[in-house]
Amino acid sequence: MHLCPGALNRALRKARKDTISVPTVNAVIATSATDPLTISTIERRELGPKDVRIDIKFAGICHSDIHTARNEWKGTKYPVVPGHEIAGVVAEVGSEVTLHNVGDRVGVGCFVDSCGECAPCKNGDEQYCEKGVVQTYNSKTYEGEFTHGGYSQQVVVTEKFVLKIPEGIELDVAAPLLCAGITLYAPLKKWGAGPGRKVAIIGMGGLGHVGVKIAHALGAEVTVLSQTTSKEEDGKRFGADHYYATKDNKQLFTDLAGQFDLILNTVSVNLPLDDYIGLLAIDGALVELGVPENPLQVAAFALLTNRRSLSGSMVGGIALTQEMLDFCAEHEIAAEIETISADQVNEAYDRAVSSDVRYRFVIDTATLANA
């Protein structure tokens, strides 16, 4: 029987695990949908020939972590360690690793494996792997185990799915770029944000504030559409050319009708999409990035008029994520963060749900050492 390199590597990993004890590390763990997260230990797999062991220094808190820990999207398998915004330093490499060296500054994003053989994988869109991409946490591996994420001291990841964090970006502010950064960079590149293009970003939270910075650096004319003007000063500082409050402001949708080439919706609530689609110019697109609780509703004529599009986007492939990190380093783009200790995660979750953070919580995983 012939095994492809990926399958062979996975088989070797399984064989090693059967004969060698696996390392134990401290981690922040969700044990049920209702109980607080606690600090305990988990086992990481033994290093395989193509694997990289990373000492995690910082882990960003994404709203997806909260949805998963609280089983709001259903399907959470407990216990689970959230976290897919991981920044750290290479501690050890497998015997066949060529892409990374001990001491390298690296990151891990939303997924840690894919089949490598389907058309999306070959095109650099591993996130859309036809076999099913292996998410960084709460995801079944091809060997049938479940992954644990970055709220921990270490992680072991196949070298292809480890990103290089360029000099010029500190690890703490780089961590959120592994999800928030690529989530915004991917559609901005896909839909051609740049000079002469008008881009609107709905919401200026953990996702939106990074999007404003990136869209501005790409050369687009950037507008923020937020419920209130409470973050207007920040928005202008991040690069927004215009900032509008949408709450109870129907006239705004008349005044701005037909103006934008691209609108990115970063909020996870059900908006009156017809109103926002009406802001698009001919051939404009509104791209959903957040995940509302209820199905989207839109009138056909909102799209038919001006040949508008409603689309969606989910992070980006490994090559594009590396491009994003390099772009952010070149343009001095970083997430705005509040650093917390591992024992503050539950409080941070509640504050994030209440939008009481500017703009992303990041866990200093050194606080796990003596937990």
UniProtKB/TrEMBL annotation:
Pfam families: ADH_N, ADH_zinc_N. It catalyses: a primary alcohol + NADP(+) = an aldehyde + NADPH + H(+). Keywords: Metal-binding, Oxidoreductase, Zinc. Its EC number is 1.1.1.2. Residues 32-363 form the Enoyl reductase (ER) domain. It comes from the Bacteria. The keyword Manganese does not apply. The keyword Metal-binding applies. Its cofactor is Zn(2+). Belongs to the zinc-containing alcohol dehydrogenase family. This is alcohol dehydrogenase (NADP(+)). It comes from Williamsia phyllosphaerae.
